[in-house]
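Morning!

This is the sequence you dropped in the shared folder:
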Amino acid sequence: MYKWFDPDTAVLSVNYKDSKNLLCGIDISNWQRVIDLNAVDIDFAILKATGGTGFLDPSFNRFANETLSGGRLLGFYHFARDNGYKGSAKDEANFFYSNVKDYIGKGIPILDWETDLNLGVSWVKEFLDTFYSLSGVKPLIYTSAYVTRQYDWSPISQNGYKLWLAQYASINPVNGHQTEVWVDGKGVGSFGNYVMHQYTSNGRLNGYNGALDLDLFYGTALDWKKLCEKS
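The structure's back. Tokens below.
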């Protein structure tokens, strides 16, 4: 078993270009449809694929193919309970799988959990378990630090589902990739730690004229690929 770097208990002091244990990337959707992925300096790209039971991001397949052909690491996510397309956990998981199955083994699948939070952990677990049964790959869950502390996520974490954390120091512009990022020190509930951190929604990178979500992955390219594999 490989160990994940725990950013809650460690001080980051690495340089992006020199580090082999820290990857920098972005997450995008059709909102950034004009981006040229070959023009920005990234290790990985995470793409919106689907939402609810009927939304397919128009840029997903193009972005996915550009990411892979450019030699970058791939992730793809499903936006749960997308407005106008809300469905049951099982139906949404089936819809997600049906639209990303060609990329299973090539990228990390992720559930984006940020709306209808009152549905709780049981909805999330049914989605994750359903997708896992279809694909053989355990998705990550993306959510905010606040949400990790409002519910008992042990049914998720104890079943091997890992966390992609969203927590920002501010909404101010962030120029370039950062390797020392702010956390509030209050932890992430029963998850204990996390494998990736989205630390701004207002990042600026050379090669794209607009705001980007910037992310750190705490691991190597091999660690990333292990999360793509069937288990």
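Headline: Confidence is low (pLDDT under 50) at residues 1-18.

More detail when I'm at my desk.
O.
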